[in-house]
Amino acid sequence: MRIVLAATLIAALAPTPATAIADACPPAPAGHAHCLAKVRAAGHDGYGPADLRSAYNLPATGGADQTVAVVDAGDDPNAEADLAVYRSAYGLPACTIANGCFRKVNQRGSADPLPDDQGWAIEIALDIQMVSAACPSCRVLLVEADDASFANLATAVNTAVRLGATEVSNSYGAPEQNGMQDFQAAYGHPGVAVLASSGDEGYGIPSVPAVFPTVVAVGGTSLRRAGNGWT
Fold it and tell me: Which segment of the chain is annotated as a signal peptide (predicted)?
């Protein structure tokens, strides 16, 4: 049975006062997406891979035939190093460029040159680590768009699919607005699960690209232990 996974799907926050959370990425101008990662000041140690697999009833094995692509804006120069620390800390097998598990490319599919830092490093680190938590055997493909414009992000999604992604995670969005339909085709690839965040703030203005009919829209959730299970 195929495992459909994406960082967008499983990155859940434990409940905490709103004052303890801040946006991880800078504000986005018109025509650009905003990453949806949050920074928690204090109050929770977070959940590890075993917690997340338990909460979402994910298998402990499988996924070696899959490549989960993470599309983000700009370069995180420490992505591979931080991923190595995360996986080592939780006893997960190494996932590196050298062993073929991890790959980082620009929106054209080349490892060089990579784009400038766009302030999305925390989002990038979160995304690739959550893929690792959910599916330690999956290959991780990080596609870095030149910036957070929807034109460049759409190009990055198409590149991810061209390079063999079986799932594409997009943890970003912007309020639905005129002109966004021009990028819809990039988020529809038969046979590839394309997921996008629908936001962390509850019901409101529909978010692009989550609003597109070919996308699995994943809502912001809270996750807490409840007895021997989860809620």
Answer: 1-20
Structure tokens at 102: 């991890």
Long-range contacts of 196-205 (CB under 8 A, 24+ apart): 196/8, 196/170, 196/171, 196/172, 197/8, 197/36, 197/170, 197/171, 197/172, 197/173, 198/173, 199/36, 199/173, 200/13, 200/36, 200/38, 205/175, 205/176
Q: Tell me: the pLDDT tens digits for 173-225? A: 999 888 889 999 999 999 999 999 988 776 677 899 999 999 999 886 788 99
Examine residue 1 and state whether it is found in any structural domain, yes or no: no
> What global pTM score does this model have?
0.90
DSSP-based three-state secondary structure for 193:
strand
Is 24 domain-assigned? yes
- Domain total for the chain? 1
2 in any annotated domain: no
